[in-house]
Design goal:
single chain; alpha+beta
Length: 107
């Protein structure tokens, strides 16, 4: 699905053809992303939720920690399921495939 992102603090971003959107609040290259976040299921009166992702190098790879707070009640289940379905599972599959390919190439 179409996504638009910018690497500037204060810039707007959107993903899934505009179904989710927000602004970059803090960007620390290679370490942290903090964004406002809302979906089309949020009511106009719902405040933006806040997304914080941190990236840490660990032995043998990296770790991503994600906190997503203040998600509108009516979208909480969809957002929770969406992170797993559209982000975590595909990232794991991609990284697993990539690490397998690297090992096979090195052999």
């Amino acid at each position: 699905m179409p996504a638009k992102i910018n690497d500037k603090v204060g810039a707007k971003w959107s993903a899934f053809g505009g179904s989710i959107s927000g602004r970059n609040l803090m960007l620390v290259p290679g370490k942290m992303i903090v964004q406002t976040w809302r979906s089309t299921y949020f009511k106009k009166t719902d405040p933006d939720s806040i997304l914080v992702m941190t990236f840490t190098k660990i032995a043998g790879g990296a770790r991503i920690d994600l906190a997503h707070v203040n998600v509108a009640a009516q979208d909480h289940k969809g957002v929770t399921n969406g992170w797993k379905q559209y982000y975590w599972d595909p990232w794991r599959a991609y990284l697993k495939k990539r690490s397998s390919g690297c090992r096979n190439q090195a052999s």
